[in-house]
Amino acid sequence: MTSMERDRMIDTAVGLCEKYRNEPALLLEILHDLQETVGYIPEETQPAIAKCLNLAKAEVHGVVSFYHDFRSAPDSNITVKVCRAEACQSMGANRLLEDILARNGLPKTGTSDKGVTIEEVYCLGNCALAPSAMIGERLMGRVTADRLQSAIEGVGA
Amino acid sequence: MTLTVYIPDDAAALSVGADDVVAALQTAAVSKNIDLTVIRNGSRGMLWAEPLVEQVTDKGRMAFGPVSPEDADALLDAMVNDSDHPLSLGPTDEIPYFKDQERLTFARVGLIDPLNLGDFEANGGLAGLKAALALDPADICGIVTESGLRGRGGAGFPAGIKWKTVHDQDVDQKYICCNADEGDSGTFADRMLMEGDPFSLIEGMIIAGLATKATQGIVYIRSEYPHAIAKMQRAIDVMEEAGWLGDNINGSGKAFSLKLRKGAGAYICGEESSMLNSIEGKRGTVRSKPPIPAIQGLFGKPTIVNNVLTLATAPIILARGADFYKNYGMGRSTGTQAFQLAGNIKRGGLVEKAFGVTIRELIEGYGEGTASGRPFRTAQLGGPLGAYVSDDMLDLPMDYETLAQNKAMLGHGGITVFDETVDMAEMARFAFEFCQIESCGKCTPCRIGAVRGRETVEKVLRGEDVARNIALIEDLCEVMTDGSLCAMGGLTPMPVLSALRLFPQDFDRAPALAAE
Ligand SMILES: Cc1cc2nc3c(=O)[nH]c(=O)nc-3n(C[C@H](O)[C@H](O)[C@H](O)COP(=O)(O)O)c2cc1C
Ligand code: SF4
Ligand code: FES
Predict the structure, then answer these.
(1) What 8-state DSSP symbol labels residue B397?
(2) For residues B295 and B314, what is the distance between their CA atoms, to the nearest angstrom?
(3) Shortest CB distance from B225 goes to which of A69, A125, A128?
(4) What are the DSSP E strand ranges found in B392-478?
(5) What Å distances lie between residue B488 and A64, B493, B495, B498, CA to CA?
(6) What is the pLDDT of residues B117-131, one digit of tens each?
(7) Which ligand has its closest atom nearest to the C-alpha of B444?
(8) Given B12, B287, B303, B343, which is the most exposed site by the fewest CB atoms within 10 A?
(9) Residue A76: CB within 6 Å of ligand 3?
(10) pTM of this prediction?
């Protein structure tokens, strides 16, 4: 990262803190927005956020690392969440996950060369139409590896 | 020719193509010169029939489903000519799955346009709130207590008693926090209600505010529910504009405002004190009790934490009276419960029935058995921390006490069905794995126990020292049950021990051959 990029990210983070009136109780909102803007929570922004909200750096880091949603590395262009909770397992979620990883050339969850990130999640609230997956904010029910893969390709991977 | 149809924009309906069906119907309507009006409703809860299309006729609403975009042409013809169609399910209200339900909390879900306040009011909405506005706070608490309404989030604590505790605190600032974190596998009722009838939740929260003199409400929704978040936000805006939220509720001089907060993907944030920490912008670790949130909750102030369905049920109790509600149900489980049929089940969906319906009626009657067509093996009741049940438990009635006596629990009302291909030792391993991933890390029995538990089940799976390792698992479960700070670690033994007790054959592994 160049120092200019770094400064820009810090500015973004500080701007978001201001948008939320530097309110420490709104740290999660700030992080959600930052991740939406930048794609992840850059390590470099954490001290700045801590300063704005009058928190210890460790507190901000603690929050970022506690929640599954927050990433500390750049996002890819497509994030696919495959549900692996019980209801989806009863309809073959484990095999679905294996298949979709294989089709994207991934040995385990992570990001492929083509920038497809595959994550496992535990329940998307679509358990009657299991197995379920989500691409971005698009929820898919009764999903098969074929349908999921063509949806991934449809988004442009 | 004009035609009006309802098609849900509930997340589950969308997940199987409801938007594509809308687009196909609109295209077909243009080519046929039909003036088509599409109203987007919530889901009726017959998720097996989604996308469900309902035609408005003078004989009532006629259902068709599951509809795919290719059906658009023929479907419109059938609707216009009132002729047969293979996807016809007849009048919606007469579909057996729907007809036999006792819908109180979900009465309007799927019936109305969720953001149409006029529709809401015309179908019984706001009646409870109007009644509450005319009552003393203590009387509202009294009616809710009298109704026997218990918390629907899992623990089943009497709502009225919680409300009364907050009511009795003599401080200025109090909060109503709605727990919409719904992380349990097999459950989706909170999501369906927020998407299908968000005003009812808001109405319930205002009533809770009036009952306790809390003027600030917060709905904490998990980030996995983007549709529900969007719907709730729009519903809040509509209610604000209409003057039902704000400084002067419908001109009464009383105030209540409502905000949304989004989770960040952590199951433990469904536990009430972790949720409060999360709303305060902190890590979602569990707080030790006492003090209970009703005395020291959000920002240290008295706080009601209730589940979505608990709050959304308050309006009908205020509107129809405690006795009306109490007459449903059995024993100390009064009223109705939103049962959610999920997993390997032919007709998955939401069934609202009075407590006391048997597991078999739900799985075999409504659900019509497994989706795969293979024999039923087990069902997990009450989410990932709930017990598995065997065939010979299916005639048990669903109520808090009966299930507890049988080492099971109702939780949030989810029923996840598995066919004969399930490996129960693998499910026990998964229970520990889930606890390991989602533990908040605050106490040792849960944080370390989950890891050791998973490792030990893995040994059993490999056939290593099976009897000794099973004994170890049982010991560990005892430590977790007795020593954990919250029900995450405290209840993980439920699925594990029920699997061991009911399906011992699955754990009886022979050691793998050396050649393998
Ligand atoms: C690990 C864990 C997860 C929980 N998840 C939820 C949840 O997602 N939604 C919910 O309403 N209650 C959940 N609960 C129960 C809450 O702690 C709390 O009892 C409930 O929200 C109180 O509301 P009620 O009285 O209306 O049920 C959870 C509890 C534990 C221990
Ligand atoms: S039981 Fe688990 S989740 Fe609950 S407080 Fe202890 S470590 Fe946290
Ligand atoms: S278990 Fe997969 S969506 Fe609920």
Answers:
(1) B
(2) 21
(3) A125
(4) 414-419
(5) 22, 9, 12, 16
(6) 999 999 999 999 999
(7) 2
(8) B287
(9) no
(10) 0.96
The backbone torsions φ and ψ at residue B378, rounded to the nearest 5 degrees and listed phi first, read -160, 165
Place of tokens 């595959």: A118
The confidence score (pLDDT) of residue B516 equals: 47
Strand partners, B179: B220, B307
Contact list, A52 vs chain B (CB under 8 Å): none
Q: What is the 3-state secondary structure (H, E, C) of B465-511?
A: CHHHHHHHHHHHHHHHHHHCCCHHHHHCHHHHHHHHHHCHHHHCCCC
Amino acid at B177: C
The answer for residues whose C-beta is within 8 angstroms of residue A86's C-beta and 6 or more apart is B185, B186, B343, B380, B384, B416, B427, B430
Which residue matches tokens 């049962």? B339
Using the atom order of ligand 1, give the atom closest to the CA of residue B180: 9
Q: Where are the alpha helices (DSSP H) in B123-188?
A: 127-133, 137-147, 159-168
Q: What are B477's two structure tokens?
A: 């479960």
From CA A22, how far away is CA A141, in angstroms rounded? Answer: 40
The pLDDT tens digits for A58-100 are 999 999 999 999 998 876 678 999 999 999 999 999 999 999 9
Which backbone phi and psi does B303 adopt, to 5 degrees? -140, 130
Q: Which residues of chain A have pLDDT under 70?
A: 75-76, 157
d(CA A118, CA B497): 32
CA-CA distance, B114 to A104, in Å (whole number)? 39
Tell me the ipTM for this assembly: 0.95
Chain B residue closest to A132 (CA)?
Answer: B15
Q: Are B14 and B196 in contact (CB under 8 A)?
A: no
Q: How far from B173 is each of B122, B167, B208, B247, CA to CA, in Å? A: 34, 11, 14, 15
Separation of alpha carbons A95 and A93, rounded Å = 5
Is a pLDDT exceeding 70 seen at residue B482?
Answer: yes
Measured between alpha carbons, how far is B304 from B294 in angstroms, rounded to an integer?
6
Residue B353 has phi, psi (to 5 degrees) of -140, 160
Taking only the tens place, the pLDDT of each residue in B61-78 is 999 999 999 999 999 999
